[in-house]
Amino acid sequence: MEERHLTCIGCPMGCALTVTMDNGEVVSVTGNTCKRGDIYGRKEVTNPTRIVTSTVAVDGGKDAVVAVKTASDIPKGKIFDIVNALKGVRVKSPVHIGDVILKDVCGTGVDVVATRVD
């Protein structure tokens, strides 16, 4: 049996989780005070994902950049690929919340969208 110790980020409580695994299979999650902790612990040790937030340059806007994020979580191992893909992206004003800035970023099937107007 293998144990992984994590701090849950599923809610503001920040519970100290212990995930017990046997041959790569999650056997139990303990230490969580809500169901989100169990879900987070199981996912984090088997298939960790994250939402990526960043900025991209805006041409002709009131600000030089606009905030963006992935529309849903992506595999944790793709974070740096996505950040690098966003480095050269420039969009033209106007930009609206929810506008797709980069479709299917790095082959993840997830779009990068604007989170603020320019």
H/E series: EEEHEEEEHEEE
Strand content: 35-45%
Sheet of most strands: 5 strands, mixed
Distance between the termini: 52 Å
Structural class: alpha+beta
Order of adjacent strands in the largest pleated sheet: 8-5-6-10-9
Radius of gyration: 18 Å
Number of strands: 10
- Binned, the helix content reads 10-25%
Poorly predicted regions: none
The dominant shape is elongated
What is the mean predicted local confidence, pLDDT? 96
Number of helical stretches of at least 4 residues: 2
Describe the secondary structure blueprint for this structure.
Layout: E1 2-7, E2 16-22, E3 25-30, H1 35-46, E4 49-50, E5 53-59, E6 65-70, E7 74-75, H2 79-87, E8 90-92, E9 100-102, E10 112-114
Question: What does this entry look like structurally?
Answer:
By secondary structure, this protein is of the alpha+beta class. The longest helix has 12 residues. The strands form three sheets. The chain has a five-stranded mixed sheet with strand order 8-5-6-10-9. Strands 1-2-3 form a three-stranded antiparallel sheet, covered by helices on one side. The radius of gyration is 18 Å and the shape is elongated. The chain contains two helices and ten strands.
